[in-house]
Amino acid sequence: FLAFSSIAQAGFILLGVIAGTQMGYATVVYFALIYIFSNLAAFGVVSVISDQTGLEKMDDYNGLYRTNPNLSLIMMLAMFSLAGIPPVAGFFGKFFLFTAAAEKGYYLLVFIAVVNTIISLYYYLLPIRAMFIEKNENPIAKIKTDYYGKIALVLCVLGIFATGLASVVWEYILSVSFGI
Q: Domain span at residue 38?
């Protein structure tokens, strides 16, 4: 699932490139930062679980919240960001990409991207549904994350929040792009 997500995210990045403006390019950098943190968080959770249990299928995550609430919350945050749900970072990244393309008159592409975002919500919400709503007769046992794994996941979460909520990052990227 996450591999297909990467293909869709690359398409969103192309909106900023197609815009061909400094704002479009700055938005590409901003979105790439958001994507990196969000993807690392999602893959980090999958990696921690897979390494300790060998489980990788979506059904294996059913009821994960009951035994591993922290990992579930990190995965939910990453999925919300990748989906572009406000107020997390991914929303702002997609919004700025859509704006950059619209400012150059690429309304049809923006419309298609918005429709794609809406459709993709279903797929991004599937793991969240599995973790928080579905029941599992054989739930994943409590996962013990090592020190470095915890630090890595916390840094990803902080990165998602920092890029989404701190205008400092956006202002810095603009200043570097525009030489202000």
A: 2-178
